[in-house]
Amino acid sequence: MKRLVHILLCTLTFAFQGLAQDQSVSNFKINLPHKVITIGELVTLIEDQSDYFVSYNTQLDLSETLEFESTEVGFYDLKKSFTTSLFATIEIDSESKKLIILPPKFKTLHGIVRDSANLETLTAVTILSDNNKGTTTNEDGFFYLKVSSETKYVYVSYLGYRTLTFAIPDKVENEVIIHLIADNVLPDIVIEASSAIEETISINPHDVKIDKESPVRGIGGRSDLISSIRHISGISVGSEAQNGFTVRGGGPDQNLVLLDGLPVYETSHLGGLSSIFVDNIIKKGDLYKGGVPARFGGKLSSVLDIRLKEGNRHQVKREAEINLENFSGFIEGPIGKKTSFIFNGRKSIINSYSNFILKRFLDFEDSDLTYNDIYSKITHWFSPANRLSLSVYSGDDKIFLRRNESSTDRVFTDSNKVNWSNTLGALNWNSALGKKVFIHGHVGKSDFDFNSRSANQVIETSDLDSSSLAINVYSRQQDYTAKLDLDYYTNNLGKIKTGGGIILHESSPSILESQSLTDQEIAQDTSYLSNEIYFFLENELRINSNWSLNSGLRYNYHGGLDTTYQYFQPRLNMHFAKNRIKLDFAYNRMSQFLHLLVNPSSGLPSDLWVPSTKKIEPETSNLFSISGNYKASPSLLVGLGGFYNTYSNLIEYSNPYEIIQVIVGNHLSFNQDISDVNWEDRVTVGTGRSYGLELDIAYKTEKIELNLAYTLSRSERTFNFGKFSKNEIETFPYKYDRPHNIAFSGSLKLKKDNKINVEWLYGNGNTWTFTDNVIPGQNGEIIYQPRPGERNNERLSSYQRLSISHSSKRQLRTGGLLFYTMGVYNVYNNKNPFYAYIKSSDTNAQVPVTTEISLYPVFPQINVGYQW
Amino acid sequence: MLVTNGNLEQLILLENNKNTNLVLTNTMVRLFFICSLLFLISCEKEIEKTISQDYEADVVVNSIISTDSTFSVQLNYSKSVYDISDFKPVENASIYIAVKDDIDDIRTQDFFLDYQGDGLYTRGNNPIGGRTYEMVIEVDGKIISAETYVPKVLKAEILTESKSSNLNPKTKQMSVSVEIAIEEEENQSDNYYAWDLIPLVESTPTTVNEKPNETDKVVDISNDGTGSNPGGDGSTISVLTKNEGISGAVPALSDESGKITASFEGISETTEETEDSEYGTDPQSTSQSLNTKRYKLKVWSISSDYYYYLLSVQQNGPGNSEATFVGPYSNVTNGYGIFAGYNLQEFELEF
Q1: What is the Cα A93 distance to its own chain's centre?
Q2: B25: distance to nearest CA of chain A, Å?
Q3: Higher pLDDT residue, A850 or B12?
Q4: B119: left (phi over 0), alpha (psi -120 to 50) or beta
Q5: Looking at residue A590, what is its pLDDT?
Q6: Cβ(A570)–Cβ(A552) below 8 Å
Q7: DSSP strand pairing (B120-123 vs A29-31)
Q8: N or C: which end of chain B has fewer CB within 10 A?
Q9: CATH number of B59-150
Q10: Which residues of A touch B42 (CB under 8 A)?
Q11: Contact assessment for residue B174 and residue B153, using Cβ atoms and an 8 Å cutoff
């Protein structure tokens, strides 16, 4: 009985004390000047506004910040903020009037996330703790995460992989290596729609899918990276034989394409037949069409950051593939325990049948349509988070067509040759320095070599007199790059990325006319050296559970050709995520030092890369964009966005007459022209703007996957052509202005490893100029005279194409995997325009007829591969 | 087993056969051919345009003036290219010409032109070199104007003249070369010149495959010498300007004595077979040598307006979707066409 009474009294005593403490807790209130405040300021405010003293350990960092939901803060608000932000506990002692901040109790986790099958590091993997603290891996698979000591588990998730639950030990000293298992390794796993659908429309960057499962196929039936990019809203569908892409009203030359950190100047083979990016060697492609991080620069419209795989570290894997366009061989594997390699070679086979067809049916006496490319990479791991890799790419294209046309009085020979090559080599070093720092080092060289020759010869049959004319264009762009940057994971300021680099440009542009029939070497005695130096600072900060901010500043220095330019480029990307809604607000300022001088009049492939000069400043752009996603159901995601982009210092030829006549006609090569004659005098500087709305809809279930991207936009340019135009200042639609652009793709899973793929593209055609207004010349001859406002007044027919294919794979008894795609490209044989010209109707000379030439009619796709 | 009937059914039956790859390959070879035909034959699509019914004609001026000819202005209306009738002349215009420079005797050069019919307006006065003229046209209630500079009479002298053969051992090309010195006009920031080198004497060719009555020609020298203003006879001439360098092998600019030197070069043709030509071998090719001895060198000093007009007209055409439209240069306000001046110097050369 006594014992019972004692227990009762004790209980009452504790209850009374608790009640007393609760009263003092509920009475505790302070007012903050703002919601975000440092611990030092908070301590001062508590002691000023209440009768409590704050007791804390001297190791507590008073400069760390806390965030509150309102400016009126009670004790429980304090406690919550300390716990979630600092993993620390705060207690109240009402008797002694003390607030005691106990030391933080947390643990950190750092390491690498890899694919379990081949040990490739995985980028942008989400690592989330059970109390909702999270981070993502960087470009090299590295992560750092700080969680409270009570945290038991983290969840590691990545699109296409099984989500891994990882139990955190109480003490983690060394780096953790997490292996994720791909979904397709365990065939019975069902991809849960709700987890995958959110990744289907990524906001920034756009994760470009390129694998053999992709519903989007190139002409040959093989998955193609550039073709996949066109299924993102804001990216132009393009036109026939154009494998490049335009982003949000910019030009094809305004996209920065990086391959393992090196710039690529030409991304297509044989006039857009396929891209140079092979699916089985590419690890990841990130496309930034807005909110470009500060570490990227040099182009105005977008960044496509492509990274090559490192190679399988477990076993040797081989693959052979053939289609109507090319055949290729692929091999990857380990070299010892710490080194891996990867190699892919590809060669076109079009020549094997095109020569016959061109000669038999199209009267081409001689032709050559070939391309080939080689990728190789070797990587050595000094430790799981310290590796050195050497990447090499080499590719070249050759197009040659010669045709004779004979009449009773003359023989006309037309000969066209276009050759280009890309050669890239990069050495990359990536290493973790301790728990919180990751460092990247890079040196490399990119060499783009382009030359074309367009020649014709007329032989009079009466006297065998002949005359000939050839235009030779040569453009070589060599970039030498070196950079060093590091990721630093702070406790409260998120991830900080900083670094710098230098790019040395060597530009060698030439145009030369000759009357010689033979192929002439163009003297390359003059090259123009210029350089770019840059530094950047980026910060990825998670402000609270809903808001996060990626901000950055880039300093760019452009030097060379007796002038220098300096730019500070702010970058801002604000993310909001709550329940089913994600929002993204972005601003970026970009500059572009190299200009592409676009062929002004002749239709020859004579675009030249030239550096900025004293008169021609680097191009700049300012892009504002907003994007949002709404998850309407576990299977349906809807994205909506808009953008407004302004451009300045764009260039056009002010008088297109002179580029051919003076530079070419007077036998002066272009390089002489730059140094001796001031080519800039013939160029006018203008501005541009583009704006639009973007809609993305994704639907994904176990069997069906549908994606729709629609862009409604306008893009225009304004130039002052001075005395060379009847309308001095002209605002006109840009060549790549596409008011409507639709890309649809879908796949239906029939049964295991069998899929039907559908792709449909629609886009308005390129703009061009036509006039029916003519005036008499000095001798009454007809001269075409465009009227004011007629620049780019015409539009090619819209581009539209439906492709349907069936893809399947089968495990053979030998252990190898046979896979194939069979389908039809351009199912309803739409004649997509390659180019157009005006002629009179055959039946009525007074009726003008636009004649459009198209290249790719309905065409079978057959791609077969074997993997072992 | 070689499969000659590569239908799908047979393909499936053989799928697990060890010849699977062979089957696929042979099937593909046959499909290659079919695909290739489809793939490489380009397609044309013709779209009839709608002709605008509300075409509005503008006035077009054609007036090229020189000190060795009287003032003359041709006025026509523009038209649609699908209008097959001739250009309609402007018959009711009032044209006034005035010297714009502030010089004492300018009043003698201010006058109206007389209508001669068929859109032609003239006056029996010659322009004076070194003057800027302004033309004002009143027609159909509109005021059309233009102004141009008439260069002074060209002062030039021949420095060297030569003829060389085997300029290029591969092509067996030959060339004639003339170097002249031109005295620059004072107070002119830009001087523009055009030139033409014309063979005057025909000679007997030496040919490998005897072909009688052949005439030697020089490439780029297509003018028969009858035109007085550059390009006035419809021929293609070379146009150059001091600022952009002089045509020829050696662009040489000199400012020591106010003279510029120019090397004019005409490259003769050859039809000799060239082994490494990308055109291949012409079975009818011949080898010729040139024996032309006398040439006429015409050098025009032209206004900047004329320079740009000549360049632009040479490249004019209906255009296509892959080329920036090259419209003709015009210095006429409120209308189209050209009002420009020039001066000519001729030299006879004998090699």
Answers
A1: 57
A2: 9
A3: A850
A4: left
A5: 92
A6: yes
A7: unpaired
A8: N
A9: 2.60.40
A10: 362, 834, 853-855
A11: no
Mean pLDDT is highest, among A614-618, A626-630, B27-31, B233-237, for A626-630
Stronger pLDDT, B294 or A749, i.e. the higher one: A749
Within 10 angstroms of residue A730's Cβ, the number of other Cβ atoms is 19
Q: Which of residues 338-397 of A touch B (CB under 8 A)?
A: 352-354, 357-358, 361-362, 365-366
- Rounded percentage of chain A residues whose pLDDT exceeds 90: 21
User: Under DSSP, is residue A93 helix (H, G, I), strand (E, B) or coil?
Assistant: strand
- Coil, helix or strand for A48? helix
Amino acid at A344: N
Closest Cα of chain B to A812: distance in Å?
A: 8
Residue A632 neighbours by CB under 8 Å, 6+ apart: A580, A638
Distance CA A473, CA A455 (A): 11
What is the distance between the alpha carbons of residues A472 and A515, in angstroms, rounded to a whole number?
11
Residue A243 and residue A267: Cα distance in Å, rounded?
7
A43-97 pLDDT, tens digit each: 888 888 887 888 877 767 777 777 777 888 887 888 777 776 666 777 777 777 7
| Over residues A4-16, mean pLDDT | 49
User: ipTM of the predicted structure?
Assistant: 0.71
| CA angle (A333 as vertex; A328, A334 as ends), nearest 5 | 155
What are A314-350's pLDDT values in tens digits? 889 899 999 888 899 999 999 988 899 999 999 998 8
Domains of chain A: 20-102 (3.55.50), 106-189 (2.60.40.1120), 206-335+354-521+531-867 (2.40.170)
Q: Which residues of A touch B328 (CB under 8 A)?
A: 775, 783-785
Query: Is the Cβ pair B324, A653 closer than 8 Å?
Result: yes
Which is nearest to A404 in space by CA: A461, A484, A477, A337? Answer: A461
3-class DSSP state of A618: coil
| Cβ(B258)–Cβ(B183) below 8 Å | yes
CB-count exposure of residue B79 (10 Å: 0-12, 13-18, 19+):
buried
- C-alpha span between A353 and B30 (Å, rounded): 11
* Residue B213 binned pLDDT confidence (cut-offs 50, 70, 90): very low
Q: For chain B, say whether A801 makes contact (Cβ under 8 Å).
A: no
pLDDT band at B175 (very low <50, low <70, confident <90, very high): low
- Residue A227 DSSP class: H
Window 33-62 of B: residues touching A by CB (8 A cutoff) are: 33-49, 51-52, 55, 58, 60, 62
Mean pLDDT is lowest, of A7-21, A244-258, A463-477, A529-543, for A7-21
> Would you state the torsion angle of the CA atoms of residues A306, A262, A218, A160, taken in this order, to the nearest 10 degrees?
-10
Question: What is the CB neighbour count within 10 angstroms for residue B36?
Answer: 20
Q: Are the beta carbons of B48 and A791 separated by less than 8 Å?
A: no
B72 touches chain A (CB under 8 A): no
CA angle, corner B341, sides to B337 and B346, nearest 5? 130
What DSSP character marks residue B268? B
Name the token pair of B171. 């092509």
Give the separation between CA A404 and CA B270, rounded to whole angstroms.
19
Kindly report the three-state secondary structure assignment for every residue of A294-322: CCCCCCCCEEEEEEECCCCCCCCEEEEEE
The first and second tokens of residue A340, run together, are 């891996």
Beta strands B192-199 and B142-150 are unpaired
Mean pLDDT, to the nearest integer, of A471-489? 86
Nearest to A401 by CA among A418, A384, A388: A418
Partner-chain contact B323 A603, CB within 8 Å? yes
DSSP secondary structure string for all residues of A173-211: -SPEEEEEPBGGGSTTPPPPHHHHHHHHS--SSEEE--S
> Boundaries of CATH 2.60.40 in chain B?
59-150
